[in-house]
Amino acid sequence: MATLGHRRKPNAFTQWVARRIWRGRPASQVTLNLIHLQNVLRFALTFALTVIAPSLILAWLGVTGSRSAELAVMAELDLQAGSSVDASLERIENIFSRFESKTTSRLLRGLSPSESLLDLSPYLLLSMRLDQNMSVAAPFKEPETEQVVDHTFFFTEPYIAARKAELEDHDYTRAEALYSRASARARGVVLKANAELQRARVLAKQGRIREAEDTYADIVADYSQLRDPWGFPLGSLAFLKRGELLLQREPEIGVGALSAVVKEILNQRWEIGRGGEAAVARRALVLMEGYADNDTIASLRKRLDERTNQLYWAERFLPELKNITHGGVMLMTRPGEFNYTLGNKALWAVVWFQEALWTFALDLDSLLQAIHQSAEASLRADSQVKVSVQSPDTSTASDQLARRSLAPWMPGWSLVAYPLDARAIADELASRRKQRLAVIGTATLLIIFGVAMSAWLLFR
Predict the structure, then answer these.
(1) What does the pLDDT read at residue 154?
(2) The whole model's pTM is what?
(3) 397-412 burial, b for 16+ CB within 10 Å, e for fewer?
(4) pLDDT in tens, 159-201
(5) Which of 369, 387, 391, 370 is nearest to 378 (CA)?
(6) Under CATH, domain 151-331 is a member of which superfamily?
(7) CB 81 within 8 A of CB 385
(8) In the predicted model, what is the mean pLDDT of the chain?
(9) Where in the chain is the domain with CATH 1.25.40.10?
(10) What is the CA radius of gyration of the chain?
(11) ω into residue 139 within 30 of 0, thus cis?
């Protein structure tokens, strides 16, 4: 048996434990077992410090690194989503801020925001001023009670005979006398004015130009607020006919008269739902061609086209405006501050200025298209997110990354950022989780294998 004199003697506690474990065995055998056990424990401790601990540390570093990479992917997505929706929101805010600043500037200069709408905003369709009763005050007026006209007048003997003498027989003297008789028998000022208008025409056909001009002037003076049975303003019609006669006699004076017709019509409040004013003004511009300066005609035609377009939108939007202003919700705003209300057909903006309420109808479809374009323009070329415009009726998706409200301009609408390819991102995160589990499993298996092999070698 090998000598053990040079080995360190086990301590008293270890010897006491050994006597209890190996009771009945010789003391020398117990001592050898203790020495052998201490060698095994030293090896196990060395193995744990040099193999197991580094393996666990490396496994932990691998797991935390994989988790950090996973969190970095989500953080990058959140950063891209937030910056994209913020950039989109800034573009959208510029659309409304430019409209508000230009409109306010025009009002402060004492100019009407109902002219040159495109200079205020490319999305502006209609601008109107409301009175204290929330009725349209300018540049239009709401439809008035339909005037009652007895159309049987046009089938009476004097009128029918006058038309026949003028159009078939070309007997203008007789036609003028018959129109005078029809005017005297007419029931109501509208029919009387209409007969006078026809009589002035046949006077001009007879060559009695001065008398015709005077008759037209009388109609303008006496019946300017009336419309003929077909909805045309009698005063403007007579003014137009008089200018046409002046154009033939004195072109320079006639051009001035026709230009005055157009300007007067543009300065009038047009009745919503009627197109008579626009038709008369267009006829005047046609007559001016070849006589007036082209720039003058173009300028007047531009104003006329804009007013006609606004008249179209006023007729379409008036019922919606009435619903919005009912109850005064739309009007709860401080002077100079724009308030927005979303309608079914338009986005309405209102502002109080010097005790006058101005309403603006913005094209909702075009605005939404511009907002979509702003959302797309805010994305980087390598962006992994997409930004969409969400209506109030759209439910919130579970994979949204960022959201910004479009209030106060479009209450209820939002900009929402989503992953560009949610499935690919989910697959990438799942792959990283599998890698993390593989690292943990491999480290565990290696440790178990090392312990098993070491134990086998020691106790073989």
Answers:
(1) 86
(2) 0.74
(3) eeeebbebebeebbee
(4) 999 999 999 999 999 999 999 999 999 988 999 999 999 999 9
(5) 387
(6) Tetratricopeptide repeat domain (1.25.40.10)
(7) yes
(8) 82
(9) 151-331
(10) 46
(11) yes
